[in-house]
Amino acid sequence: MYLQSTYQMSERRACRVIGSDRASVRYQATRPNDGALRERLKALAQERRRFGYRRLHVLLRREGEVVNKKRVQRIYREERLTVRRRGGRKRAIGTRRPIETPLAANQRWSLDFVSDQMTDGRRFRILTVIDNCTRECLALVADTSLSGRRVARELDAIIAQRGRPDMIVSDNGTE
User: How far is it, in rounded angstroms, from Cα 8 to Cα 104?
Assistant: First the structure.
């Protein structure tokens, strides 16, 4: 202890000065050697890269190791075996070609969904179909639920009335 060596104090007096208990000053940690467990944990983590410490603990227990989960977690952290976070959604790289503006009616239609809520809490959705050249609204279909079949049926009705478009675009939203 620093006070004992520097000021030639007794252990009792040094502990009284710093306000510490003598038993805690004398305490020697008796942690067992984790060498074999450490190596086995590293080997398992190398085999099973997506496993965290909890699943590795289960594997160790199955192999017959009597080991505490907290001990496995401590060694797992000390060895920096943490599982890497997976990347997010892959997105297109680079600039996209700007979409051409349509020059004639029925060249391109836009399809989108709009949703809102009534005062009593019920939700409803509106299917909007717009001709991009004339900016004409071809359809507004409102309902509490719009299935894919219903959307196809509505598009078939518009095509029967106005003719087939060259392309139909949608915004790839949450719908």
Answer: 99
Structure-block tokens of residue 74: 């401590």
Q: Outline where the chain has alpha helix (H).
A: 2-7, 11-18, 22-26, 35-47, 53-62, 69-78, 148-162
3-state secondary structure of 170: strand
Report helix, strand or coil for 158: helix
Tens-digit pLDDT profile for the chain (175 aa)? 788 999 999 999 999 999 999 999 899 988 888 889 999 999 999 998 889 999 999 999 999 999 999 999 999 999 998 887 777 777 777 777 787 888 888 899 999 999 999 899 899 999 999 999 999 999 999 999 889 899 999 999 999 998 999 888 887 766 5
Q: How far apart are the first and last CA of the chain?
A: 69
